[in-house]
Amino acid sequence: MKSRVRARANIALIKYWGKTNPALNIPAVGSISVTLESLWSETEVEFDARFRSDTLLLDGDSRPEQLERVSRCLDILRERAGVKTHARVVSDNNFPTGAGLASSASGFAALSAAAAHALELDLSPRELSIVARRGSGSAARSVFGGYVEMHAGSAADGRDSYAEPLLAAEAWPLEVVIAITERGEKAVGSRAGMESSASTSPYYPAWIATSESDLRAGREAVLKHDFDALAEVVEHSCLKMHAVAMANRPPLIYWNPATLDCMQAVKALRAGGLPVFFTIDAGPQLKAICEPDARPAVVGALRELPGVADVIVSGLGPGVEIR
Ligand code: DP6
Fold it and tell me: Where are the domains of the chain?
C-alpha cells in the first residue's frame, strides 16, 4: 500500500481568488493555468495498519500546521476505499516551498494521486482533480499537463468543480521565466488572503462579476494561440487580483520593490517587440511568460535587476506521473 508520484507546479494565467464554500474548498471563480515542466513535488504515501496516526515529512521537516489539511485529503480517499489505515507521507519539492511558487498545487496533486494509487482506487483524472481541490484549489489543475482550465462549478457538493485539459503543452510551447525576488515563506498565504478579500475588500464583488469574461478571453486566446490577446488578459487578471487584495482590511501587498522592477522590465521588453508578459501569484516572485526565442533576452533582463536573487526557467510539462 505504497506509491510515489511526481506532480508539477502550475502558474495561473487567469487567477483563482475566493471561494463559495471554504469547507469543501469550492472556488468562486474558474481559472486557467499552465503546468510547469521543471518545478515539481515528489510525494510518497504509504498506508500501514501499524501506523498510529498520519505523519508528514515535507522537505525533511515535520510540518504539524500542514498535517490537518493532508489528513483531510487522505480521509476522502480512505472513505472511498473503506479503510481507516493511517499513512506516512514524505514529500519533497525541487523548488522553494511556500514562496508563491505553487508548492501547495504540486504537493496536493501528488498527495492525492499517490494516496489513491496506494489504496488501489481507480479514479478518473476528473475525480482525482476533485480530491486534489479539497487539499488546495490550484492543485486540481496540477493533475493535468499543458494548458488547463478549472471550472468553479455550481453544485453545492462541488462535484462539478474540477479542472480539465484545455490545450496540450506541445501545441503551444511557451516558456516561463521565474524571477525570485525574495527567499523564504510568505507571511500571508493565499487561503487567508482570499478569505480576507471576500469579507473586507470592496473590490471583491467586481472581481467575481468580471471573472467570466476574463475566462472567456483567456480560453479563446489559448485556443487560438493569440499571444497578444493572452498577454493583455493575463496581466489584467493578475493586477486585478492584486488590486482586490491590496484593498483588504488590513491591506495585503504581496510585492516588494524588485517585483515592480521586474514588471517594468517585462513591459519595456514587450514595448520593444519581444513576446513576453508577466503574472504574479500570492507572493513576491514574478513569472514572465514568453515565446521560446525570447527566453534568453527575458532571462538576461531579469537577472541583471539588483533585487533579483535567482532566475528559474521552465517549459510546460505533463500532469501527475506515477513513479
Ligand atoms: C494566487 O490554491 O493556494 O495562486 O485553495 O486555499 O489552497 P487554496 O488556495 P491556493 O490559491 C492559489 C491562488 C493563486 C492564484 C491561482 O493559482 O489561481
Answer: 2-171, 175-314
